[in-house]
Amino acid sequence: MKPGLLLAALLPAFSAVGDELPVLRRSFSEPASxxxxxxxxxxxxxxxxxxxxxxxxxxxELDRHGLVEAGLHLAWPDRALRWRNLAWQGDTVHVQxxxxxxxxxxxxxxxxxxxxxxxxxxxxxxFLAFGKMESxxxxxxxxxxxxxxxxxxxxxxxxxxxxxxVEPPPFFESGPAAALAGPRNGVLAEYVSAIAxxxxxxxxxxxxxxxxxxxxxxxxxxxxxxxxxxRAWADALLARLGGGKGDPSAALLDAVARKNLFWQxxxxxxxxxFLFGDRQHVPASxxxxxxxxxxxxxxxxxxxxxxxxxxxxxHRYAKEAAR
Length: 323
Prior knowledge:
The chain is of the alpha/beta class. The protein has a domain at about 45-245: Rossmann fold (3-Layer(aba) Sandwich), CATH 3.40.50. The chain is built from 11 helices and 5 strands; from the N terminus they run H-H-E-H-H-H-E-E-H-E-H-E-H-H-H-H. It has helices spanning about 5-10, 25, 55-60, 60-65, 65-75, 140-155, 180-200, 225-240, 250-265, 270-275, 295-320; strands at about 50-55, 80-85, 125-130, 165, 205. It has a 5-stranded parallel beta sheet with strand order 2-1-3-4-5, sandwiched between helices. It is globular, with a radius of gyration of 20 Å. Residues about 1-15 have low confidence and may be disordered.
């Protein structure tokens, strides 16, 4: 396939398709009632509220480490908060690649196919962490970044005013491009300043990581955080948000990991083409005995109950740890 044709085939997955909404916007459900803003500009989650995270690789890795989520549960153990990581490796404000028919209202047109029927994420607090990878395009592309970020904020502001813009971690003097860390961080600082301006102009919460003593040992490749880097980033974010007193218990971290395993299986299911993609009509997507039933859809539909059960355990461990 020629490159131009390949791009045309993929483009609908990460942009508005016809009258379909952009992918990050359509990943959320419509709120049953208007979501109130933060009180007096303070970060204050409501009881039962969903905390969603959007970004690229570094944000996606928050689920693997679990420290920020556990810290927020410890800070508000009685509020039964729900953490949903919607980040995807490689996501930027410009492009968010997803499988064909991902959370679209209309799915595949072949006989026997159905649209994506998974539950969408409830809008509550939405954290957005962009800017680091985009800054590699240089200062000259900063206006393009600001325009794209503003457009994304416009999309999400229609759902909730509780948007939190997160300062990305820096580049590090480690890995194959260690010598480029200084110049890259100089450009990144301009992008961070632009993000701060966006937050100020729109009255949004800007979450800085503060005076962290970043070291080369916090990244193996100079770009992404390793375990030590995620620990430092978690401590810094939680200090600004008002949580994270002490280390989370092993039981709480295990509960966070179990819940996130179910969530990632639900939000990022494998064999997408057989689930809601363009191979739903083939025999392999059907039950062996009951040919009218879709075995994969049945499995996906069972995950929300498992997720809710894991979340109840998580909340119980958070209360015990807080006491």
